[in-house]
Amino acid sequence: MQPTTPPAGPPKRNLSETVWTKLDRKATAIAEFTIRQYRKKRSTWTVGAVGAILVVVVLLFYIDAMSEGIESVDDDGDGLLDEDPSTWTEWENSQYAGRTISGPMSDDDGDCLALEPWMRDSNDDGVDCNVIYEYDQNGFVTSVQADRFVDEDPNESEFLEEAMHRSFLLGFGKFGFLFILGIFVPLFLATGLIREEMDSGTLHYLVGKPIARAEILMYRLLGFIGLAWPYFVGLFVLSALVTGIFGPGDSIYRFSDLGIWFGILIATFLTVLAYGAVFITFGIVAGRYGVLVALLFAVWEFFMMFLAMIGTTREMGIASMSISFWGAEIINSTAWLVWGDYAMMSGQSLAVDIALWTVWYSPFPTTSPLINLVISIIVLLLITGLFVLMGQSSFKKRELN
Amino acid sequence: MMPDLDQVGEGQTQQEWQKVPEAPAIMVDHVSKWYGQVIGLNDVSLAISGGVTGVLGMNGAGKSTLLKIIVGRLRPSQGQIRLFGTDPFKNPAPYHRLGYVSESEKLYDWMTGLDFVTTLARLHGMTRDEARGRAEHVLNFVGLLDVANKEIGKYSKGMRQRVKIAHALVNDPDLIVLDEPLQGCDPLARTTIMNVIRELGAMGKTILVTSHILSEIERITEQIVILHNGRLLALGNLHSIRELLDHIPHRILLRTPDPRNLGRTVLPHPSVYGVRFPNPGELIIETNSLSDVHQDLPALIVESGVEVTAIENPDDNLQSLLGYLIGGRS
After folding, report:
1. Most buried in the list A226, B2, B165, B284, measured by CB within 10 Å?
2. In whole angstroms, what is the distance from residue B138 CA to residue A58 CA?
3. Which of A6, A28, A205 lies at the smallest CB-CB distance from B20?
């Protein structure tokens, strides 16, 4: 191969002139250009405003719900409301009857952790210190089975409010951010990143520069992220402030929830990135049908999301064929890590159960939340990488007429 | 063994590097391009290095297709294309030395001229400041510096063409490819753009410019390539082609309030073999030596004392040139 441009001499290598700094210049140039281009488009502002309004409305509903008190309910049907210590009728007849147990006899917070580890799961469901409530189809309690020393008739105004708050956080994180906003913001903003330039006949300005097309695609995606991530951070700050201040508890702000919000943030960042990569690729591969294909994909994601809520399909891992599943898995794992008393909560409220998609009963893919978290992050990054590669190889072969 | 940090290659000194012959700027080797059943370009071979070359052809002759293949927007269906020795469709490296002005009138209307050129300059690996400096320089060169901070959407047609030229010059390219740079411009803008192109040619750049109007190309360059129906019809100096043209029957159209009087004065000229009066106020002179008549025409008009508002050469267009070239071949 003969060199095309013989240099005058051995190339000088200034620190400011290496391949990397030049790459960096091109990357920032395209990302900056992309963000400025977004700013000039009406669709960007529409999508942003609709998302913000949605979040604000949901938060208003939350404030409204939290300001109303919750009436006590006699869950175990013994005629007493929120009794503590409880009567433990079941306990008297169980296999452990007659044993002496050290520590407090019962506690409302439900952590029977004062017991020896082998004694903490007396109802044999594999979970320590919880209560199994069974509901009929109307959501009413039909039977109660508690681990020892766990109050099976909890104080509703305290626990149910906490449960509602938690299910709101998780539900809002998963459906509001991860799914609705997480999929629609990339759908509207990322699908056209290359497609619209092709259609409008302006792509040659970018492609006609000494920069590989694969890079252009990556830097356009970078520009999208540069717009979308700060936007989500803004919405998160607002949501975390409102739920932290208006949430149950005596303190001014619920700092304990910040961990959950951080989990939702990571989950949303990664899913938005993955969806962005998917949609920019659809825009290139599927041509003018890109938006249609992207919509079909969104339907698929939504379907998978519901499959993940059914215990058996969840265990089979069918739903893991979607991005939404792995994003939700990050939130599940964080909830698991942050809320140590999670088990008790999941037993007390159908709402938390639904919000957590029965993750406790059938953890997927492993039983360790930390490992699940790491696996989910890796899977989402791999999906992103895969679609970026697909988009790049299609873009490289594309003729620009 | 020591790693070759300078990437010069084993045993090659600086002198040996310089001995390597420079690949031609453009090498088109038996290139064909078809869109389904339609042939856009049919077995075109061409090598261009240095100078200003005009690509002439009617609409649909394949000019844009040829240029798009040259700049790597399209991949040839058959044959090979090399830009400074490299396939531009596979490797963007030759874009370091290329400036391309497309025929598309689409621009980023929301950007200012300066922003547009600066942003694209940064894609050449310049820093923000370098890019800005270069952008101001080239905008000044095309005469747009005073409107550099206006949005492109507010530019006139000629300004839009010039900002496209500016962006193509920002990397100080060795090769500039312009696709119909004069299309849709008013006469003033045309003159400005033609001057810019001529100036670039004088600076020693290799320039390829397309047009479907013969007189435009004539004012820019003499070296032309004629495309017709996707084929390379002629290649060479416009003068020699024009000389051939000079000796075929030609018409000159004059607009004057008194055509008959003028016709009487012109008719005795040895090269004129007929006059006609197609419409009131119009005179057509038929000749077989265009240059002779044009040489003497001013004197004849003065002699007749008739006022002439316009002189046109209805035959002096690409259509008749093509007609002649095609006719001459068959």
Report:
1. B165
2. 53
3. A6
Residue pair A343/A360 in contact by the 8 Å Cβ criterion: yes
Work out the pLDDT band at A353, boundaries 50, 70, 90: low
E strands, A94-163, are 131-135, 141-146
Helical ranges in chain B per DSSP H:
14-19, 63-70, 113-122, 128-141, 157-169, 187-202, 214-220, 238-246, 259-266, 290-304, 318-329
Per-residue pLDDT of B153-168, as tens digits, reads 999 988 999 999 999 9
| CA B226 – CA B215 distance, rounded (Å) | 14
**Domains contained in chain B, CATH given:** 26-243 (3.40.50.300), 248-329 (3.30.70.100)
Among candidate residues B262, B271, B248, B269, the one with its CA nearest the CA of residue B310: B262
Q: What percent of chain B has pLDDT over 90?
A: 35
Do strands B272-276 and B282-287 pair parallel, antiparallel, or not at all (unpaired)? antiparallel
Which amino acid, one-letter code, is at B40? G
**Can you give the residue ranges of every domain in chain A?**
25-69+157-397, 85-153
B120 shares contact with chain A (CB less than 8 Å): yes
Question: Given an 8 Å threshold on Cβ–Cβ distance, is A204 in contact with B100?
Answer: yes
Neighbour-count burial of A353, counting CB atoms closer than 10 A to its CB (0-12 exposed, 13-18 middle, 19+ buried):
buried
Cα angle, residue A292 at apex, residues A289 and A293 outer, rounded to 5°: 85
B305 contacts chain A (CB < 8 A): no
Dump pLDDT digits (tens) for A299-338.
898 888 777 766 666 667 777 888 988 898 888 888 878 8
Give ipTM to 2 decimals: 0.75
Beta pairing, strands A141-146 & A131-135:
antiparallel
Residues of B in contact with A209 (CB under 8 A): 92, 95, 120, 123-124
pLDDT band at B5 (very low <50, low <70, confident <90, very high): very low
Considering only CA atoms, which of A199, A166, A395 is closest in space to residue A280?
A: A395
DSSP class of residue A107 equals: B
Contacts of B86 in chain A (CB under 8 A): 4
Angle at B251 between CA B248 and CA B254, to 5 degrees: 155
Question: Which is nearest to B177 in space by CA: B87, B74, B84, B54?
Answer: B54
Checking if the pLDDT of A254 tops 90, the result is no
What count of Cα atoms within 13 Å lies in the side-chain half-sphere of residue B70? 33
A128-144 burial by CB neighbour count: b if 16+ within 10 A, else e?
A: bbbbebeeeeeeebeeb
**Contact yes or no for A204 and B119 at CB 8 A:** no
The owner of tokens 């977004």 is: A38
Among candidate residues B54, B76, B72, B50, the one with its CA nearest the CA of residue B63 = B54
Cα nearest neighbour of A205 on chain B:
B120
Task: Report pTM.
Answer: 0.77
Inter-chain contacts counted by CB atoms under 8 A, chains A and B: 103
B175/B48 Cα distance (integer angstroms):
10
